[in-house]
Amino acid sequence: MADIVGIDRPCMDLNVSVDVFPTPNEGGLVKQNTWQGGGKVATGLVAAARLGIQCAIIGAVGGDLYGRFCAKDFERHGVDISELHVDTSATTALSVVISDRESCGRSILYRPGSVTIPPLNDQSYGMVKQARCLFLAAAGGMYAEAAQIARASGAKVLMDAESASPAMIDMLPLTDVFIASESFYNALYKDSEHKAHLRELSAMGPEITVFTLGEKGCAGLGPEGYFRLPAFPVDVVDTVGAGDVFHGAFAAAMVRGMDAETAARYASAVSAIKCTRIGGRAGIPDSATVEQFLRDGTIDYTEIDRRVEFYQRGLEHV
Predict the structure, then answer these.
(1) CATH at residue 43
(2) Do the strands 55-62 and 30-38 form a parallel or antiparallel pair, or are they unpaired?
(3) E strand residue ranges, the chain
(4) 252-309 pLDDT, tens digit each
(5) How far apart are CA 305 and CA 282, in angstroms?
(6) Domain count for the chain
(7) CB atoms within 10 A of CB 114
(8) Are 245 and 44 in contact (CB under 8 A)?
(9) pTM across the whole model
(10) Is there a smaller number of Cβ atoms within 10 Å at the N or the C end of the chain?
(11) Residue 318 falls within a domain, yes or no?
């Protein structure tokens, strides 16, 4: 039985690191490149699994090379893929993510792929009912249906809210933990009154509401009250997947019984460590590495750098 169950359509990421993003008609030297699995909930589940939580994914990939890589990558990290459907007639989404040191930003080229997630079946219903946390990043349709099932069974629903769509706002009454991005915040609000807006969203349903604010840290509101946390200072190599990892680590912390502020601090540490290595997954630490970092600020890269080297070998592992 999985403690955290997520619904997602995983994608393949080709991560490329450069010093300066080239202007049109110019080139640039690739400092590093790596192939890694991607997707908001997908990468969050990998983070939670690496932190020692039993996780499972409900979703679909194509029967192509990228889909096979995504499925095997979940297995490598201990994520249950029994409800990850493989559609041999469809393609898996692909992202080319270019990170540049000059701006500490990233540019993304995205091919959606043709695979779709099939309707929930008896097996996936059962998986959701037995979970302690349902992890979502999309709204309406099957996501709302799954949220209703989870809450009726006593599970917490955690939402990764990247965009402020009407459908996402409609999910607030079905959500226990609502973690919204800086993009979500800026789309709705033109100020920095985080506390007031956290209260507005919490009044619509969630027990815990958090705004992730990139290098400015995060702000949140839970049963214990309002909190504001700075980001951990690290040597940032790549911010790809930072939010995804934060959400997965927050879910892991919540399953372990941490309060909102402690969970946010823990998730911030996991995300910060991830950002010191290229890609969304190579730098995800295990729980011992996170505890050491929280204790004395140091990072043991022994295991992390073995994974960095593994992903740099490309698609040979399929």
Answers:
(1) 3.40.1190.20
(2) unpaired
(3) 4-8, 11-18, 30-38, 55-62, 79-87, 93-100, 105-111, 133-136, 156-161, 177-180, 208-212, 218-222, 225-229
(4) 999 999 999 999 999 999 999 999 999 999 999 999 999 999 999 999 999 999 999 9
(5) 8
(6) 1
(7) 13
(8) yes
(9) 0.95
(10) N
(11) no
